[in-house]
């Protein structure tokens, strides 16, 4: 039987081998403080029409309900900051420039779990990539990887916030990292002041129902509310404003993941190209892109809204 220390070292070595930039580990336990905060956020309706946020409340706040017998929550970060410059046409959030990160990261996570099953012996566990009721940012903070900024993003002191978060919940005892205790946002208000729709509230609360990403991705209505006209700063899919202005992102480094290489059309398409794009071409070009989440109809709605 390997020691807890050796098991922990194996987990962190595998994380690095499979291309994850950071790995932190926390003890699996119920998140009582987050439960109160999430309940208050939902009660205020700050999730807008994202009804799925109301589902599986107990699972979100207790990893042992997701994985029976869970003992450890392993948090993995993967950098997506691009090498390239911004697109020539409408604004598209950097996370969506390449292949769908769910697919890319799940492949790495699946292979990592398979190798750990050999190295550690058979264990119970599940891996998640933004597709299950897991409070990833809280677990990242509890794992010592960074703090949750005023813009709601996890910020690492050494590399900024352009990271995807993956979570592996296992029934294995490991050595737990100390939580990241300090908030290095300090008195900085840049993200609050720069948010085009005032979605970032002063008390470190995000009004999800006012976020540009909500309107351009999550909202499935046929039309975007007219009161938002002129407030999107040319963002067609998502928004990076609060990250772009964050001083900590001056430390961001280009990623090394082949799967995040930008789709050429993302960088090259002009407004006219987007307007003239057929649904058939959209499906072919963006088949493996996060843009497919909004579908052709949603992208065209967003473009028309920006022009109106």
- What is the average per-residue confidence, as pLDDT, rounded to a whole number? 95
**Count of separate structural domains:** 2
Low-confidence stretches: none
Number of helices: 13
How much is the radius of gyration in Å? 20 Å
Number of strands: 10
Strand order of the largest sheet: 1-2-7-4
Order of SSEs? HEHHHEEHEHEEEHEEHEHHHHH
**C-alpha end-to-end distance:** 66 Å
The 3D shape can be described as globular
State the helicity in percent bands: 25-40%
Roughly what fraction of the amino acids lie in strands? 5-15%
Biggest sheet features: 4 strands, antiparallel
Structural class: alpha+beta
Binding site for cob(II)alamin: 60, 130, 151, 154, 165, 213, 239-240
Binding site for [4Fe-4S] cluster 1: 185, 188, 191, 246
Cofactor: cob(II)alamin; [4Fe-4S] cluster
Binding site for tRNA: 220, 297
Please give a quick description of this structure.
By secondary structure, the protein is an alpha+beta fold. The protein contains 13 helices and 10 strands.
Characterise the protein shown here.
Catalyzes the conversion of epoxyqueuosine (oQ) to queuosine (Q), which is a hypermodified base found in the wobble positions of tRNA(Asp), tRNA(Asn), tRNA(His) and tRNA(Tyr). Its EC number is 1.17.99.6. This is Epoxyqueuosine reductase. Belongs to the QueG family. The strands form 4 sheets. A 4-stranded antiparallel beta sheet has the order 1-2-7-4, with helices on both faces. Strands 3-10 form a two-stranded parallel ribbon. The protein has a two-stranded antiparallel sheet with strand order 5-6. It has helices at 4-17, 32-43, 57-61, 63-66, 101-120, 136-142, 190-194, 212-218, 241-244, 264-268, 271-276, 279-285, 295-307; strands at 22-27, 72-79, 91-92, 125-128, 147-148, 154-155, 163-170, 200-201, 205-206, 235-237. Helix content is 35%, strand content 13%. The protein folds into 2 domains: 4-170, no CATH class; 190-245 and 264-307, no CATH class. A hairpin with a 3-residue loop joins strand 8 and strand 9 (205-206). The termini are far apart. With 308 residues, the chain is an alpha+beta fold.
């Amino acid at each position: 039987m390997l020691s807890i220390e050796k098991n922990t070292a194996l987990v962190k070595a595998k994380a690095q081998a499979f291309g994850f930039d950071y790995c932190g580990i926390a003890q699996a336990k119920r998140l009582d403080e987050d439960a109160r905060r999430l309940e208050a956020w939902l009660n205020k309706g700050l999730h807008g029409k994202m009804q799925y946020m109301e589902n599986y409340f107990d699972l979100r706040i207790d990893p042992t309900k997701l994985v029976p017998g869970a003992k450890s929550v392993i948090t993995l970060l993967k950098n997506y900051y691009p090498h390239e410059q911004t697109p020539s046409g409408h604004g598209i959030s950097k996370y969506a420039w390449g292949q769908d990160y769910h697919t890319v990261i799940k492949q790495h996570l699946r292979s990592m779990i398979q190798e750990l099953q050999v190295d550690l012996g058979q264990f119970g566990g599940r891996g998640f990539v933004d597709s299950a009721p897991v409070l990833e940012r809280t677990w990242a903070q509890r794992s010592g990887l960074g703090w949750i900024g005023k813009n709601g993003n996890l910020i690492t002191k050494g590399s900024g916030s352009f990271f995807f978060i993956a979570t592996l919940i296992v029934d294995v005892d490991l050595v737990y990292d100390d939580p990241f205790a300090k908030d290095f946002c300090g008195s900085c208000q840049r993200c609050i002041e720069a948010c085009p729709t005032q979605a970032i509230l002063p008390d470190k609360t995000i009004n999800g129902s006012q976020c540009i990403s909500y309107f351009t991705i999550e909202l499935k209505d046929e039309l975007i509310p007219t009161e938002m006209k002129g407030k999107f700063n040319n963002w067609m899919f998502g928004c990076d404003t609060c990250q772009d202005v964050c001083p900590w992102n001056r430390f961001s480094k280009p990623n090394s993941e082949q799967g995040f290489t930008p789709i050429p059309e993302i960088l090259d398409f002009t407004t006219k190209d987007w307007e003239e794009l057929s649904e058939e071409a959209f499906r072919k070009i963006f088949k493996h892109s996060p843009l497919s989440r909004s579908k052709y109809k949603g992208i065209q709605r967003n473009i028309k809204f920006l022009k109106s």
